[in-house]
Amino acid sequence: MAAGFDTVLVVDFGAQYAQLIARRVREAHVYSEIVPHSATAAEMLARSPKGIILSGGPMSVYADQAPVLDPAVYELGIPVLGICYGAQLIVRQLGGEVRRTGTGEYGRTELRCDPASVLFSQWPEMTEVWMSHGDSIVAGPPGSATIASTPDVAVAAFESVARGLFGVQFHPEVVHTARGQELLKRFLHDICQCRPTWTHISVIEAAIEEVRARVGRARVLCALSGGVDSAVVAALVHKAIGDQLSCVFVDTGLMRAGEAEQVEATFRRQFGMDLHQVKAADRFFGALKGVVDPEKKRKIVGELFIRIFEEVAATLPGVAYLAQGTLYPDVIESGTSAAATIKSHHNVGGLPAEMALELIEPLRLLFKDEVRAVGEELGLPEEIVWRQPFPGPGLAVRIVGAVTPERATILRAADAVVLDEVRRAGMGHELWQSFAVLPAVRAVGVMGDERTYEYPIVVRAVTSDDAMTADWARLPYELLERISSRIINEVDGVNRVTYDITSKPPGTIEWE
Ligand code: XMP
C-alpha cells in the first residue's frame, strides 16, 4: 500500500492485461496495485481499496480451470469494474448468462452506448472500442441495465449502480479504444471517488519522507550501474538524506561508450554526491581471460563486481542500508518462472546477500515509465533517464568468445555508432534496445586495394514491451546504411556489418 494515496486494486486474471490496466489507472493519478485472482475478499479489504477492477484474461469463463473471484468481493460495498473476462465473470458469478454465440469480436468495433447511464455519462452515442472476445454476454446479472451494444453483441456493457457493479466487454486500457481513459477516469474519480493525487511530485515526496523516516541518521550505500533504475534511486535517496548517501560505481571496462564519464558528470558534479568510482577494467579482463562460456562470463563479472563493491563498502564506516532499484513489475512477478529468469539477471552486479545491510527500495511501487518521469522530475539528464536496458555483465555477453580489451574497444566503438544513429533518427524511445554484437568469426573483405581479414559486427535492434518476447525492429534502410558505413569507416578491425532479423523467440535479445 502507498500511504496517503487512494488505492484501486487490479485483479489479475492472466495474460498481460493487468499491468496495462494498472498503469492506465496511475496515469489517471490514482495509485493501483495488482493482486492475484486467488486473493480473498478479506485480503483485498486489508488494502483499503476504493475500487476494484477485474482484468481480462485468456480463458473462457466456462473452461475447467477458469479462474474466479472470491464471491464475497461483490458484497464489500466497493465499486467493481469488470473488463472483458472480468465482465463475463461478474455475469457468470452473479446469475447472468455468457454464451459461445459464434460471434466473437476482434479489433476495432463500433459501440452504441447509453449517454444516460452512469458509466457512459454524456458520451456521444457512437464510439469506437477495441474488442477481443470469443464468448459473449447475452444477459447481464439480474437487476443490471444493459448500457451498450455493438452490431454483433447485445450486451457490450452493463451496470448495476445500486450494487456498484460495472462491466465492459471491450478494453478501455488499450489506445485503440477512443474514450478508454475517459471511462477509467469516470470509474475512478466519480464512481469510486478516488482523489487524483498520484502525481510524480507527490510520489517523490512520499518516497523521500519514507526514506528519511526509515534511515534516520544512518548511512546508505547505493551501487550505480549507469542505468536508469539505480540512477533514479540514487537521486531520490540523495534528495532525502543528502550526504548520508554514498554511491559506488564500478567501471568494469565493459560499459557502453561515455557511461563512466556520464556517471561522474551527473552524480559528482551535478548532484555533488559522495561518489566512489572504481576503475577495475584490468581486474575484469584478467578474470575473464580465456573464458568463452556465456554463463561463466556472467558469473565471473557478477562475483567480481560484488567483491569490489564490498571492498569499497568496507572503507565507508557506519553504512546500515543498501538502496536498490527494484521496480513494481519485479515485485509482482517474483515467484513465477518467467520472473525467476528476470530476477537472476537483476541480481548480477546487484546485492551482496551476505552483507548484513538492510534494503531500501524506493521504486518498488513504480512502473518503468513512472521511474523515468520521476528521474526527469529530479533533474537527471535525458541520456540517463531514457537509456536503454543494458545487461549487468555488460559488453562481456555481447562479445562472443574471448573477452579482451581490444575486442571490447572494437565493440564499444561500433555500439556507440549504432546508438548515435538511432538517436539521430529519433528512434531511441521506440526501440527496446539497439546495440552491436561482436561475433567470434572473421571474414574476408577488400578495402582500398587490399584484402582484409577482420571481424563482422552484428547490429541488433528490437521492439518489446517487457523483454520476454521481442521483434526485430524494421529499421529504415537509410538508417542501416548509415550505421554500416560509419562502423566500417570509423571502427578499426571491422570489415562487414550485418543486421540480425530474428525475433524472440526463437532468438534471445542478447547473443549470449
Ligand atoms: P535475453 O537475451 O534473455 O534478454 O532475451 C532479455 C533482457 O535481459 C537483458 N539481459 C540481462 N540483464 N544481466 C542483466 O542484468 C544479464 O546477464 C542479462 N542477460 C540479458 C537483455 O539485455 C534484455 O533486455
Describe the structure.
With 512 residues, this protein is an alpha/beta fold. It folds into three domains: 185 residues, 3-Layer(aba) Sandwich (Rossmann fold); 186 residues, HUPs (Rossmann fold); 102 residues, GMP Synthetase, Chain A, domain 3. Helix content is 34%, strand content 23%. The chain is built from 15 helices and 21 strands. The strands form four sheets. A nine-stranded mixed β-sheet has the order 2-1-3-4-11-10-9-6-7. A hairpin with a 7-residue loop joins strand 9 and strand 10. The longest helix has 21 residues. It is globular and about 80 Å long. About 3% of the residues have low confidence. Xanthosine-5'-monophosphate (XMP) binds next to helix 11.
Alpha carbon gyration radius:
26 Å
Stretches where pLDDT falls below 50 for ≥5 residues? 335-350
Relative strand content: 15-25%
- Second CATH tier, the architecture of the largest domain: 3-Layer(aba) Sandwich
What structural class do you assign from the helix and strand content?
alpha/beta
Largest β-sheet summary: 9 strands, mixed
- Which small compounds were modeled alongside the protein? xanthosine-5'-monophosphate
What does the average pLDDT come to? 93
Helicity level: 25-40%
Task: Please count the beta strands (DSSP E, at least 2 residues each).
Answer: 21
CATH topology of the largest domain: Rossmann fold
Amino- and carboxy-terminal Cα gap: 38 Å
CATH level-four homologous superfamily name of the largest domain: HUPs
User: What is the CATH class name of the largest domain?
Assistant: Alpha Beta
What is the number of independent domains?
Answer: 3
Give the strand order of the largest sheet, numbering strands 1, 2, ... along the chain: 2-1-3-4-11-10-9-6-7
